[in-house]
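dumping this here before i forget
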Amino acid sequence: MKSYSDRTFKEIVKENEVIAKLEFTDCVFENCRFTECMFEDCNFCECKFVNCSLVSVDARDTGMLFSSFSNCTLVGLQWNHFQSGSVSFPVQKFEKCNLKYNSFEKMNFKKFDFMQSEITVGTFIGCNLCESSFKNCNLKDTEFIDCDLRKSDFRKASGYKIDLTGNRAYGAKFSYPDAVSLLSSFGIIIER
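structure:
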């Protein structure tokens, strides 16, 4: 396995490629684009992705640990494929990212701040989102299934789909008018 440490990679463009047996530690990826690529037997530890695009990227035997994403476009990713063994902290931060068709399954996002990201048509399944912040996030058609949302902050967030009977949401904060959507899981109809 080839290893890179404390390096900056700029404007790398990869399409329909298999990227295998590479290890990155404390590396920065700037303005890079990976489209329909497969990461095989790779590791990303404490890496930063800035202004990058990852579209329909998949992973096999690949771990990502405490990596951060700022101003990135992330489309069609299954984040549990980037979990290394039982470690469930592939992402340290999403800041002002555009995530579309992303799936998060059984991941630990306790006290996580999604920092004004746009998460559309996403799915969170069985995730620990206790005390997380989705403040000012656009969550259009994003579903939360069997998640721990206790004390999470959804104020000024919009578009979310949360079934209160299938998630734990004690102490979670919501704001009007979007909080009205929480009643749909009870079959309640509200008219103006």
